[in-house]
């Protein structure tokens, strides 16, 4: 197994994940099979209980793993299906070591960070690297490892030491280190400063790791003098100093790396030049250039709770992008904080309230994504009501589907107190959304209905089934605790709301549609997690087609659901 390690220096949030994904794309284009591992040095066992405001979205894998959003980047860029073990955290490592210690596996020895924690890290990396993630048999050729955080962080020290030992044990021909660093430009002087990167590399070398390549982040292309200075003081050949400057969209990053022969530097270090082919990135180039040349756009109102940090809905944004490009459009997302639509907002901040409603009314379609807790729920209900009554295309995902059920029950069934048990926290008969035990109410972590589950279509004559290639069922990823109350289904369907998708037991409602509406769809699963650049999620595609008035034509002309 060959390993490519991507570390970061100077500041966090430099784009290590995109850089690591892009390196993987270029190596894959050279005919190699690639897998990836993300190391998060925090103590949480997984990302499941972390606030989207603090850490961005929680990405859900097929096996139910709740992981860092960077694994979503890997899946989208490399078109692979990862496992929960591809995300290593300090919490997971310490938990596994402590379990062994309790069982007596260490034979009475003093359990220490070195060697026991570092050995556990190495063993985890080497075993996970062998798991095939691309649907083929046998291990990949290269494993790209991203070390989260910044070199010098206390919590990442055991991982740095483990990776130093790994690089020594696998040999120089099997290990390549790429260090991502920042080259700032001071406004007054206007000069590209290399000193922060010099210090970062010095810190890394003091810990026993020497970078083979530098990926330098900057707003503008690096000057030759800057490269020479970096080469001289960081002991990296000038040809191995990559400039990852700002680009119009992140699909340009693999092209940027290829144009600087990054693949040759990595292949040479890993002794793979003899088996690799020249990188074939024609599809990728076409995709990046197509997006740059798009002129028409579609306005999408995204009504959510965490709109203050767009990374909270990263997969939703990417799925909208994939669907829009398939329709030759650029997405123009109008972010609306759900609470700004509520009556309380009209009293406290009337201008914000008026602007939120004006934005909603100017959008071609409405999307209400997932979320937890009762903040902003009233605003989401108002958005769903507006979309339903005004025939505006609507897609509700997870909580967004439950919102549409609550709104319909209140407005059409006349159940004014209709609500979700999640918000009332009681066994009220007014709950149209209830807790259905497949998890625990006391423990928050890893207790939900998680991962890829089968949804059976109840009728082939529905929009969703047609969008999904007239399939009898669909496998999509879930992340929720609450379900639509089965006892209320009959009343809702009598009034026109149709549940066209259910789980295999028939008790859990998965997909709802409203006939006689251009596109009013709610899904309990998260279709955004399986959307890919060249294979957009059918539901997101349906939303954009409906927003542009092309859905009916599409369904008639493409009965198989393809674009």
From TrEMBL:
SUPFAM superfamilies found in the cross-reference section: Class I glutamine amidotransferase-like, P-loop containing nucleoside triphosphate hydrolases
Keywords tagged on the record: ATP-binding, Glutamine amidotransferase, Ligase, Nucleotide-binding, Pyrimidine biosynthesis
InterPro entries named in the record: Class_I_gatase-like (IPR029062), CTP_synthase (IPR004468), CTP_synthase_N (IPR017456), GATASE (IPR017926), GATase1_CTP_Synthase (IPR033828), P-loop_NTPase (IPR027417)
Catalytic activity: UTP + L-glutamine + ATP + H2O = CTP + L-glutamate + ADP + phosphate + 2 H(+)
GO molecular function: ATP binding; CTP synthase activity; identical protein binding
Keyword Ligase appears in the UniProt entry: yes
Domain CTP synthase N-terminal: 2-272
Enzyme class, spelled out: ligase
PROSITE patterns on file: GATASE_TYPE_1
EC number: 6.3.4.2
Glutamine amidotransferase domain span: 309-544
GO biological process entries: 'de novo' CTP biosynthetic process; pyrimidine nucleobase biosynthetic process
Pathway: Pyrimidine metabolism; CTP biosynthesis via de novo pathway; CTP from UDP: step 2/2
Origin superkingdom: Eukaryota
Family indicated by similarity: Belongs to the CTP synthase family.
HAMAP family named in the record: PyrG
Function description: Catalyzes the ATP-dependent amination of UTP to CTP with either L-glutamine or ammonia as the source of nitrogen.
Protein's recorded name: CTP synthase
């Amino acid at each position: 197994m060959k390993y490519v390690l991507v570390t970061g220096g100077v500041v966090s949030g430099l784009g290590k994940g995109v850089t690591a994904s892009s390196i993987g794309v270029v190596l894959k284009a050279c005919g190699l099979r690639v897998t990836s591992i993300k190391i998060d040095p925090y103590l949480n066992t997984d990302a499941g209980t972390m606030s989207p405001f603090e850490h961005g979205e929680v990405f859900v894998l097929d096996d139910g793993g709740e992981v860092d959003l960077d694994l979503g980047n890997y899946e989208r860029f490399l078109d692979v299906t990862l496992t929960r073990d591809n995300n290593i955290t300090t919490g997971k490592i310490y938990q596994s070591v402590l379990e062994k210690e309790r069982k007596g596996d260490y034979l009475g020895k003093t359990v220490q960070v070195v060697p026991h924690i570092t050995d556990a890290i190495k063993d985890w990396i080497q075993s996970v690297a062998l798991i095939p993630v691309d649907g083929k048999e046998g291990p990949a050729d290269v494993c790209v490892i991203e070390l989260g955080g910044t070199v010098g962080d206390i919590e990442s020290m055991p991982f740095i030491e483990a990776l130093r030992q790994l690089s020594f044990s696998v040999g120089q021909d099997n290990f390549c280190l790429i260090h991502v660093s920042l080259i700032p430009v001071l406004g007054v002087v206007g000069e590209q400063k290399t000193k922060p990167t010099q210090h970062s590399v010095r810190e890394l070398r003091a810990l026993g790791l020497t970078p083979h390549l530098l990926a330098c982040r900057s707003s503008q292309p690096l000057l030759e003098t800057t490269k020479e200075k970096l080469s001289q003081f960081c002991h990296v050949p000038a040809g191995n100093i990559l400039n990852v400057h700002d680009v119009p969209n992140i699909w340009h990053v693999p092209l940027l790396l290829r144009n600087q022969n990054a693949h040759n530097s990595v292949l040479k270090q890993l002794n793979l030049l003899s088996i690799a082919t020249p990188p074939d990135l024609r599809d990728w180039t076409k995709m990046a250039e197509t997006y740059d040349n798009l002129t028409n756009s579609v306005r999408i109102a995204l009504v959510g709770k965490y709109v203050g940090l767009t990374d909270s809905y990263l997969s939703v944004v990417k799925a909208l992008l994939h669907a829009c490009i398939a329709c030759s459009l650029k997405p123009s997302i109008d972010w609306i904080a759900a609470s700004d639509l509520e009556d309380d907002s009209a009293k406290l901040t009337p201008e914000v309230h008026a602007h939120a409603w004006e934005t909603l009314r100017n959008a071609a379609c409405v999307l209400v994504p997932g979320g937890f807790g009762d903040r902003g729920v009233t605003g989401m209900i108002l958005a769903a009501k507006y979309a339903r009554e005004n025939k505006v295309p609507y897609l509700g995902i997870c909580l967004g589907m439950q919102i549409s059920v609550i709104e319909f029950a209140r407005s059409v069934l006349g159940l004014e107190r209709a609500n979700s048990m999640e918000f009332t926290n009681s066994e009220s008969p007014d709950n149209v959304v209830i807790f259905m035990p497949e998890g625990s109410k006391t423990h928050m972590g890893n207790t939900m209905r998680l991962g890829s589950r089968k949804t059976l279509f109840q009728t082939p004559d529905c929009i969703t089934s047609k969008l999904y290639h007239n399939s009898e069922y669909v496998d999509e990823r879930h992340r929720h605790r609450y379900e639509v109350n089965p006892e209320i289904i009959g009343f809702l369907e009598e009034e026109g709301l149709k549940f066209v998708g259910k789980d295999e037991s028939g008790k859990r409602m998965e997909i709802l549609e409203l006939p006689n509406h251009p596109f009013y769809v709610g899904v309990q699963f998260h279709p955004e997690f399986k959307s890919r650049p060249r294979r957009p999620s059918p539901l997101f595609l349906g939303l954009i087609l409906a927003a542009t008035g092309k859905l009916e034509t599409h369904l008639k002309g493409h009965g198989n659901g393809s674009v």
